[in-house]
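Record type: monomer structure entry
Structure origin: computed from sequence
Chain ID: A
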Amino acid sequence: MFLIGTGVLKPGAALPSVRALAQRLGIHRNTISKAYHDLTLSKVAEKRAGRRLAVRSAGRGSTPMAARGLDDIVNAAIAGARQGGYSLQQLHERLRDHLRAAPPDHLLVLSEDAGMRVLLPEELKQRFSCPVDACTPAELLSNPARIIGALVVSPQGHLPGIQTVLPAERPAIAITYSPANSHLQAIRRLPRPSLIAVVSVSRFFLDTARGVLAPAVGRRHSMRGYLMAGTRPETPGAADLLLCGAMTFPVVRARYKAAAVTCYKLISPACLDQIAAVLVCRRATVPSRATTGARDTARRLLRQTGK
């Protein structure tokens, strides 16, 4: 999962056979089969007839206005449509199409994990000034109106299931995760057997960290995860190295000043740059009021002169 998320395993890349991976890791084949089955169910990998399991393609790739002012705009649109001889149904359909195609004014994060719906938006808020919302894929499918004005940012595995509600003009951004090389090196450089604490508001983050850091931890060190969420958040005890997510890093760093505390941000810098490029590009395509007014004036002059 981590190699797919970081882009090391590209879409279409074949995974090792069950027999080969079982022999390499010294694990029973049934365990490998179960893990591959989970990958297929989460739509991260797919198996085609006569072929090995392969990485699935990702697919298609300001201050709010006062309510009274917005009501005036809506009433003016309704009155204008009626004066022009259009029905309210026609106005609704045209408005819906324009809203779906409008440049995004906020980010919408998708995740099945409740902690990730807090952690990923926090990382995005640290980079972008626009609002950031979050929901599950099922919530988006049950209420497609949430797509209006949103640039969807989602793990790759959710994208195939939401293609039907995404506007063609604004495909979702597939999240790529940051490599953990620096954190692995930090563990390997520890001079003596140490206790490593992983602290996050996301269970998925903790499970992923355990799997990624396990080769460096080995039998020399000890590692424990702490979930700082819910009604009974877990607080780490004494530790030599604390690895935190973006939400827990400020709290842990302030509390454990004598220990080594490091922050692992899930979303890769390249993915953040991709999101920024889409936001800038979409906003740049919206004509300003001055430009629109100049165009309207030019058109009226041409009609008056008969050209």
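Annotation 1: Residues 60-67, 285-292 have pLDDT under 50 and may be disordered.
Annotation 2: The longest strand covers residues 150-155.
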